[in-house]
Amino acid sequence: MNSTSSKQAPTSQDTRILCLTRKHSVYATGLGLLLTTFCASSHAEIAINVPNANLSIYGRVASGVSYVDNIGAAGDSVFRAASNEWGTSLLGLNGSKEIAPGIQGQIKLETGFSAANGNSNAGNLFSRFATVGIKSNTMGTIEFGRSLAYSNDAWSLDPMGMNWSGVDSLSKGHNWGTWNNTVGYRSPNLSGFEAGLQLSLGGQAGNNSAGRSLAASLSYTHANLNVRAIYDETRDANGKLSDLFNASSEYIVGATYKIQSTTLFAAYNRISASDAASGTDTAMDHSWVGVNYQLNPDNLVRVGLFTAKTDVTNAKANLYTVGWDHKVNDALSLWASAALMDNNKNAAFPAVGYWQDAPAPGATQHGINAGFIYVF
């Protein structure tokens, strides 16, 4: 997860910068003091400027409460901590150093974690990013390592901002992926066009497609219009597209258009698993529309309608969502959202990202969550 989506990274408006410089002889001591200060008081992004590296620490903590009903055949309900439901909590470190005019070497280390229990989302030290690369102002960026899949670019097409009820609810987190062993390229902006291409290398001898993942993203922006196309595929251990949600390919085409305080969203998504077992679904058509309305600088209202239909089992569902983000100050925000999933008799899609809490086939499910977001 997630959203942005994959989820939203801190922006310059979300952070305040504190710059500290140390002589080489006290780098280690200075960094230790900075980390101690950071742990004690998270009031600003911390930037460490030294001759051999410009490093900045940033993060976000998102947590609250949630409620889901009609879980399983018994129709149970649950009230619990809403960990990462607006977007994942995260802690990151960026580093860069100019190696030639207009060219920088750079690193990115970032982990997502649950504010409810403090655990890493994926159980490893850097669950979202552990990359090293080179960025050219004119040629783009190439990077290597563990990275969010470029299919997380679907965040920009999701009226719900890739939260727990949105673009990935009907596709089982298809665009929340984090990939190991990646080689990725992002182009600079060229007359409104931006492109990305990413390959996750399976590395299995004798079968180069085993466990391989591939993603590509192309966008065009002109004035208030943004148009985007995304493709990705993830193969199983045998190099096959064998499962609609776990080993499949997809493409997304969509657009957003801003009219004063209103942003309109529309997209179509096709997911395919051509090697799926007989009698199971081999494709799903997924589409959505939505709107974001900026009531004022501190209040954003989100509305979305998502629909999906599979080919073999004829599972069909509609997801209705509404959300509210309230900015208290540059660091602290509040959020609340609600969702209703309407399944046909063959479908058991959940209203939220907890697929283990899916309802019985044909059941309607509701999900509500709310909480706080603190960015530094």
TrEMBL record:
The alphabetical list of record keywords is: Cell outer membrane, Ion transport, Membrane, Porin, Signal, Transmembrane, Transmembrane beta strand, Transport
Q: Which GO terms are recorded in the biological process aspect for this UniProt protein? A: monoatomic ion transport
A GO term from the CC aspect: cell outer membrane
Q: Which PANTHER family match?
A: MAJOR OUTER MEMBRANE PROTEIN P.IA (PTHR34501:SF9), PROTEIN YDDL-RELATED (PTHR34501)
Q: Does the keyword RNA-binding apply?
A: no
Name it: Porin, Gram-negative type
One MF annotation (Gene Ontology) recorded for this entry: porin activity
Its predominant location is membrane
Under the heading Gene3D superfamilies, the entry gives: Porin
Name its cellular compartments. Answer: Cell outer membrane
Domain Porin, first and last residues per copy:
34-345
Q: Which organism is it from?
A: Albidiferax ferrireducens (strain ATCC BAA-621 / DSM 15236 / T118)
